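Q: Could you predict the 3D structure of ATP-dependent DNA helicase RecG?
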Amino acid sequence: MTTKQAPNTLQKMGLDSPMALALHLPSRYEDETELCTIEESLMQGRFGSTQTQGRVIRNQVLFRPRRQLLVTIEDDTASLQLRFLNFYPSQQKQMAVGAHVRVRGDVREGFQGPEMVHPTVKAVTPDAPLTTSLTPVYPASAGISQLVIRKAVAQALRDPSLRDSLAEFLPTKLMAELLPSHDWPNLQSAITYLHQPPADADTQALLERTHPAWRRVQFEELLAQQISLKRAHAIRRERHAPSFKKANEGNGLEAGLLKVLPFQLTSAQARVWEEISNDLSKSFPMNRLLQGDVGSGKTVVAALAAARVMDHGYQAAVMAPTEILAEQHYLKMKEWFEPLGVQVAWLSGSLKVKEKKLAQEIIESGQAQLIIGTHALIQENVSFAKLGLAVIDEQHRFGVRQRLEIQQRVGSELFYCHQLMMSATPIPRTLAMTYYADLDVSVIDELPPGRKPIATKVVKASRRDEVINGLQSWLSKGLQAYWVCPLIEESEALQLQTAVESFEQLTQALPEFKVGLVHGRLKADEKAAVMAAFKANQIQLLVATTVIEVGVDVPNAALMVIEHAERFGYAQIHQLRGRVGRGSADSVCILMYAEPLSMAAKERLQTLRETSDGFVIAERDLSLRGPGELLGAKQSGDAMLRFVDLQRDAWLIELAQQAAERLLVNHADIVERHLERWLGSRAEFLKA
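A: Sure. Here are the predicted structure tokens for ATP-dependent DNA helicase RecG:
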């Protein structure tokens, strides 16, 4: 089957070549290798899908209670009713009285006896042979039938070009040394098996994707990804970046910043700064991920990196995903750097046209040495005079395309700026090994002295009044608190307590205290005014949506109530909880939930009550949501692994890494063929 012959609908799914169809592997299978009498089906079908056949003795369209097609079939043992709520005239014709049909589905008790609803139907002769292999069920888009995909795949598997596309070119010796002792088939055999498994195949292993045929495909896919990432790593080392060595002791902005800071660096911060300092002194671009739990002090490390770059006459930029977080960085950096004579610029989408233009001018002229803002910093009309460092906070919030390296031309010289990515959402080890192989990772694994552990309590929403009474005695001690809600306005679908409603209720219940409200729909200046008042203790209780998830630092706020906690994810609650525990008072986070709770929500709240270890939480989050959302790569949709589950298949990653290293050193020709087979044009995304 050639590209030109592929139906338009298949092309839309990217199934435009024999190779693409061969790699469009089944998501599950149906067993059509056995046939029961109708009587046997009535027994078996109540416990799962069953296949039977018979002659049509009745075919009628009813219009009450809704339009539906009812067909009755019989054999020598019994009769069975088939019910279709959505049907076409062609189906009605296919099951005309007297026709012989083979049907597959679950049997249930209907109003008029046993029935199958929307079974799979085939017109057959009474003695038509059964299939000898399991029937694949493929991922499909709307409007594309399984029959169309099955026919296209079967045709592709017979295409002579596929033999070359799936040729075995990985060195036999390498495979023998690296792969497990049990027999993995070659790639062509594995793919043919997965499309056409025999009747006696281990269906469980196929469905769980642990069958040797699946393992071979998964290994090959991981190998392509690891080769691509390792090559990106090597390519980066060949690029040119300005080298920023440490200035003479006691001079410059770096030394000045360390003097004005009101605290000493922790040993973890000092170790991480040493790693970054070493990267900045190299003549190829740094590509480092700085991980650290909420409140561990990542910002000061980023500030030291910015100071080093500015000491050499270059600009530094700090980019954050939300205005509130970017603004926190701006205020903090301004406080540290302006006394040292540094001009700090602010750029965000909400600035007025005149202010934006002025900011762009001082950035382009080089007058602004440190630039802080949202993704407005990477828009086309922003031009840096001499950018040496880009710091990207909460990097998983940006799409893959937005993280691609920033390159610049200064005079005749092309150079890449150093990049420091920061995240308070720890990247699980399996994710780091597969998607961040091109990144060097630093971890701040201790909190600054004085940070106390946060006690987490899980409370039913029916005890809301008790929580409000406790809040009153808390505020009476002179401490402040957050009350977080998931929605701004009432949603009939979710029936959740809203921020506005909670604000009104808490204002009435606590008349002696000032209650503030902040949410995403407030204008930037209104939001800033409320936050400033909260920070100054003019507001004692802040009712908020998740806009306070990151970047808010109020040491006197030591209580956090999260309403409808069952609707928040692991990472969100972990981030929110990190807003308290920043002062000397004992801190508490109350997770208030509405019943009934799903099993997943119950497990999530239990985990959050038991641990505050960001890495444990991140691993649980990965198993729940998959890598797409944690990476931010969902926005590209291209860099995700199709056949590998990072939790289940983690042991394969190390095998693929070892194989990738050896192929890159000894088999450059094989590397090219392997990347082309698995990634084609998608390899670019893996370099982001």
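Q: Anything worth pointing out?
A: The chain is about 40% helix and 20% strand.
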